[in-house]
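User: Predict the structure for this protein chain, please.
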Amino acid sequence: MSLAKTYSPADVEAKWYQRWQEQGFFQAKPNPRKQPYTVVIPPPNVTGVLHMGHMLNNTIQDVLVRRARMQGKEACWVPGTDHASIATEAKVVAMLKEQGINKKDLSREEFLEHAFAWKEKYGGIILEQLKQLGASCDWSRTRFTMEPKLTEAVLRVFVDLYRKGLIYRGVRMVNWDPLGGTAISDEEVIAKDTQAKMYHLKYEVVGQPGRFLTVATSRPETVMADVAVAVNPTDPRYHDLAGQKVRIPLLGREIPVIQDEYVTVDFGTGALKVTPAHDLNDYELGLKHNLPVIDILNDNGTLNEKAELYVGQDRFAARRNIVKDLQEAGLLDKIEEYASIVQTSERTGAVIEPKLSLQWFLKMEHLAKPALEVVENDTIKLHPPKFKNMYRAWMENVRDWCISRQLWWGQRIPAYYLPDGSFVVAQNEAEALELARTQTGNNDLQASDLRQDEDVLDTWFSSWLWPISVFDGFDDPDNADINYFYPTNDLVTAPEILFFWVARMIMAGLEFRKEVPFKNVYLTGIVRDAQGRKMSKQLGNSPDPLDLIRDFGADAVRTGMLFSSPAGNDLFYDQKLIDQGRNFNNKLWNAFRLVKGWEVDNALPFANAQAVSWFEAKLAETVAVLDEHFEKFRMSDALLTVYKLLWDDFCGQYLEMVKPAYQHPIDAQTLSATVGFLETLLKLLHPFMPFITEELWHELAERGPKDYITVAHWPKVTAPANSADTLAEMDKALAIVAGVRNVRNQKNLGPVKQLELAVKTDDQAAILAYAPLVRKLANLSDLSFAQEGPAGAVSFVLGGNEFFIPLDIQVDAATERARVAKELEYAIGFRDSVNKKLSNEKFVANAKPDVLERERQKLADAEAKIAALEQALKAL
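Assistant: Here is the predicted structure, written as structure tokens:
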């Protein structure tokens, strides 16, 4: 036998991944004879490299896809990457800066040449890394959100929505990222807790020298954009100031005092500075009172000429300077520290500025209503369903989507401006020119007379089309791929993008295909460290996934990540999880080597019928439980079910039952059954541990050229007759073995020392039925029956039976009485808890018959155990 003593992942993983690809096992095409199973990858950014979140997310996807493939479905997992407009442009700008090149010195075309070159060099790194994880994607279908066909789809959708009246251009308050130089959506804003300062500024009342109106603000650098001070009309402190004017500190410009119920009387000073250009609520207040708008900030966060003071200074530098100048002028009443929340850009980390800006928007109300309905009625199921509340809250309070970004990297907005300032929306320049001529009646217009909008579309405006566009469903809405693979089946993603990716994909699917894009959404948790912090390279608390794969093997990392990752709950990463994954690999490897090392003697009779029947029943029971876990997306439970079946039931019990004595042969029937069990176990393990199972699959038997476990049939195990009785009886036998082993541990007796066991029972036949197995597993020299326990014996009770182990040591009667009394106390407590449940009329009325029967059996067993323990205590 050539199988190595220890498992070496490095020698196995690259070999099998290459062979799977050579055989084309991951490639999928429409096949009317098979049921489709489709997953589209949440496209990672082209700037990305594999991190712990990717590891978890893609492992779950791969488990689902591999199992579907084994179920005989046409499993299609579409990979790809997202162009990530803001993040990628920032990377390219930084790269050019290192080369001494400023983006401002380049034309758009020159910059895009650099950007595409960067994408070609770095953009596919993460996909190659996913191969090391074992991801069984159909790599021939790899897509990129800015490839020509997907860009055409984006532009086609923009034009369609514009013509439906759902896209418009207007001035709105947006989240402005001064570092990225672009607007970002609400969902790309990260709120961070911080300690801030509240500055109490003194506005002098015009015509009343020495009287000041004190206003509290956290942003004194914006006072130059103030256009009013607002007070509540019911506030008696300011009744006489209604219609009066105050002077802006330092600047001296006069602004009115207005009254509005919006102002809270008991918050701060009860007086609110109104700055419509730099606060959303102030903007709404300004519209209501017809106030002017003064925007004092440049796009890069510096103050412009309209500020009059501190022009050209960064906003935070201007804050420091104006506070100093206000103090010197006696116009700063006080400064207070307070806990606050600062809004930052997800992409650059910069503090967001609310900013009035001319942008493109998509009306969301029309799209959101049906997208909410399909989740509410479970046409699309969220796993876990607790996220329906979050989804509903978002969708019922949806705001129009700002879809324009002030960048060059992305799909350019297909709006073309005419010399008179009007515009047309068209998919390309030729169509735009035709529209412009029709709109103006001027057939002399030339393409050179048109100017395309400089902005690009939000990255999510391409990725919301992903489940359709990857199958070219906009280019050819009736092609074979889209008709077969759409709608997809399962989406695996993170809760933080539930709204701005998942919800939007649902909207797009219903709007453009009149069908939901997927049926299930599995929401993973966040991978956190032991302190509860999200793992990130910036914090330095995240191991490199590729290092983990190199050191432990992909199978160990995959299982380690899944051991404690229930849907929707965060995974608290611990190195021990990966160690446990590696130990699991080694356990399987060693079990396989043990079985393959047995010599067979065809002349021997079938000696292990009980053990084989039991494991057949256990296997059938476990496969049913496992399939239910998969159907309900309990991925961690599914893995732990297989783990227990292999580690405890197969290795810990079954192999111990059937393995021959040292250097003795095994009978052919037992070996055949054991090899069959191993083959089934390998199939059940394959979605979780694809590499080691493929290796052992080929070691287990001679295989044909296409006979790989990755395309083997998922086990369908039929429970043998009387399997429930078989399992129940074996449970009793194994409980006896556990009782003996517990005594060994208590008395520090090694497993090699043979012990005697005497049983006091009213049902000797039940004990005798499994006596040979009990003798073997518990290492007994004798198993006999007795009416009373031998002197100096240690006892334990199971059900209504009492078991005695004579020992060559003095047993302390007091200690033994205390032990039995403690066991009796626990048994009484257990009986009372079962009685309480069975006395609950509501439980009895609603419980299934088999559940009731189990509870009644528990009660009977507890009563029998209590009686035996009471008798044992009396004897002591």
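DSSP finds 28 helices and 31 strands in the chain.
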